[in-house]
């Protein structure tokens, strides 16, 4: 998901790993293994944010 923010075509911006982790924690998402460098989350492909992104990509 972090890379969705960095997508240049949608006016993206770089997100630091720590910023993303903090935002996900604030949003209530718990990583599978918090002791890892890159956290993995259980998020459905049907998540509203991903559905919107996939529709935009499919339209291109």
Would you kindly provide a written description of the structure presented here, covering whatever features stand out?
It is built from 3 helices and no strands. Helices cover 43% and strands 0% of the residues. The two termini are 19 Å apart. It has one domain. The mean pLDDT is 80. The protein is mainly α and 60 residues long.
Blueprint of the fold:
Layout: H1 2-5, H2 17-26, H3 48-59
Our measurement of the CA-to-CA distance between the termini, rounded to an integer number of angstroms, reads 19 Å
- Which structural class best describes the helix and strand composition? mainly alpha
* Biggest sheet architecture: none
The tally of beta strands, per DSSP, is 0
**Rg, nearest Å:** 13 Å
Bin the helical content: 40-55%
Number of discrete domains: 1
Low-confidence stretches: none
Indicate the overall shape.
Answer: globular
Average pLDDT taken over every residue = 80
Figure out the total of helices.
3
- H/E element order: HHH
How much of the polypeptide forms β-strand, as a percent range?
under 5%
